[in-house]
UniProtKB/TrEMBL annotation:
InterPro entries: MFS, MFS_trans_sf, MFS_Transporters. It is a multi-pass membrane protein. Keywords: Cell membrane, Membrane, Transmembrane, Transmembrane helix, Transport. The chain crosses the membrane at residues 21-45, 51-72, 84-104, 110-138, 150-170, 176-195, 219-242, 254-276, 283-306, 312-339, 351-369, 375-393. It holds the Pfam family MFS_1. Its main location: membrane. This is MFS family permease. The lineage of its organism: Bacteria, Bacillati, Actinomycetota, Actinomycetes, Kitasatosporales. It comes from the Bacteria. It comes from Streptomyces murinus. It is found in: Cell membrane. GO terms for molecular function: transmembrane transporter activity.
């Protein structure tokens, strides 16, 4: 098996869906960055809702949106690719339109807007991963997924920075940002749809059913719920600890968040390529170890107190971000490698369900643990993440159990899938045998 050892920008763009699709991702991320971090402020300042009501509506929107994931998985398994990506963008246009039409003091329309925004935000990762998995294969696919994440983080950061500058305009500025976000989603959806990428539904294994279940991946999915907590550490756990425990300036929290974004943009692809020398499962387990060590580092840093605590937390946050980067570069890639082609969409949908669940419960879990002290917060996170890493490392793949050899697909599986692009031509995308 050939291992990806070099980063070739043009090849990455092609493997990620092509230039037009890359532009769609950038526009979508930029628009998301304009509004998503400030949706709570929109509910409070523009619609004059209470902070608790706004937060409940946002959380409910995310949780209820997860219900749509099985349908998204089935749609993907029917061969849809760019259409699902475009739909995930365009459904958020509906959410923004509802947001702009919501009168002040009305909570239910805001909850409906949060629901449509949540549906798009939950459906997009699975649809994007399926599209990339159709265009690129092997370690090139892993690098392409990493490039998509780096591009998205860059767009989110740029959008959030631009929105922060505009917030001085008050409620009027927030309404304008929402309108621009809707236009960005509309443009991105049109660009994604114009790619017109579709995969011919793959044939199920001999003797199996084309509508058979996706691989269970129980340990991987359960572990992912815990791993996902690392994504909310820079946004929730560290600001909470820095401000309430160490009584540090909010500037430290902002610096940690900016550093996290910059590191992800700069290192996501290089680190993913570097880790391609090892199996994806081993890398994902290693990511858990790195994250657990960083949590213990936070515990040690917060015990310093005084003037050293905040700088120490900021330094350890770099290690936490490295763990996040390793996790993000291997988790989705492992799912795409494990899932047979005929159930790829359902496997990615289940993975996104676990991701969404982790993101939904982590704020409440982090704040509850933090109220019991630093040892309870960081010790619990470290123990749970180490346990999850152990579960990932010891879980056996279905292909390994069936064939008795790691990396070999079950007998009778189709090794090629036809892909139709906007040119109407057909290309054969072969799935090589590779370590998981």
């Amino acid at each position: 098996m050939a291992i990806t050892t070099k980063i070739r920008p043009r090849a990455l763009v092609r493997a990620s869906g092509g230039p037009r699709y890359a532009v769609a991702l950038a526009v979508d991320a930029l628009g998301t960055g304009l509004l998503r971090p400030f949706l709570l402020l929109y509910g409070v300042l523009v619609l004059r809702l209470s902070a608790s009501a706004t937060g409940i509506a946002m959380t409910a929107g995310v949780v209820v949106a997860l219900v749509c994931m099985p349908a998204v998985g089935r749609w993907l398994d029917q061969g849809a690719r760019s259409t699902v990506v475009a739909a995930s963008m365009l459904v958020r246009v509906v959410g923004v339109a509802l947001l702009l039409a919501t009168p002040a003091g009305h909570g239910w329309p805001f909850a409906a807007a949060a629901l449509f925004l949540g549906i798009g935000n939950q459906a997009w990762p699975a649809a994007h991963a399926a599209l990339v998995a159709t265009v690129a294969h092997g370690r090139e696919r892993d690098a392409a997924l990493a490039a998509g994440r780096a591009l998205r983080n860059a767009g989110l950061g740029a959008g959030a920075l631009l929105a922060t500058v505009c917030l001085a305009g008050g409620p009027t500025a927030l309404r304008a940002l929402a309108a621009v976000t809707g236009l960005a989603y509309l443009a991105a959806g049109a660009l994604a749809w114009s790619v017109r990428l579709r995969a011919r539904p793959a044939i199920a294994p001999a003797g199996g059913r084309a509508d058979g279940p996706a691989p269970r991946m129980r340990a991987l999915l359960a572990a992912n719920v815990v791993y996902v907590f690392c994504l909310n550490v820079p946004e929730i756990a560290l600001p909470l600890v820095l401000v309430t425990r160490l009584h540090a300036s909010p500037v430290w929290s902002a610096a940690v968040f900016v550093a996290n974004t910059v590191l992800v943009v700069a290192l996501q692809v290089p680190v993913t390529v570097l880790m391609s020398r090892f199996s994806r499962r081993s890398v994902l387990a290693f990511a858990g170890v790195v994250l657990a060590v960083s949590y213990l580092g936070f515990l040690a840093a917060t015990s310093l107190g005084g003037g050293w605590g905040a700088p120490a937390v900021a330094l350890v946050s770099v290690l936490c971000t490295i763990g996040e980067i390793i996790y993000a570069g291997s988790a989705t890639a492992l799912v795409t490698a494990l899932a047979p082609a005929h159930v790829l969409g359902r496997a990615l949908a289940r993975f996104q369900l676990s991701t969404g669940l982790g993101l939904a419960v982590s704020p409440a879990a982090i704040t509850a643990l933090a109220s019991r002290g630093s040892a309870a917060l960081w010790g619990s996170l470290a123990a749970a993440t180490l346990l999850s890493a152990s579960a990932v490392a010891t879980e056996k793949d279905r292909a390994t159990r069936l064939s008795g050899h790691p990396g070999r697909t079950p007998s009778g599986c189709v090794s090629a899938a036809a892909v139709t692009t906007q040119t109407g031509q057909s290309a054969v995308a072969r799935q090589g045998v590779e370590p998981r």
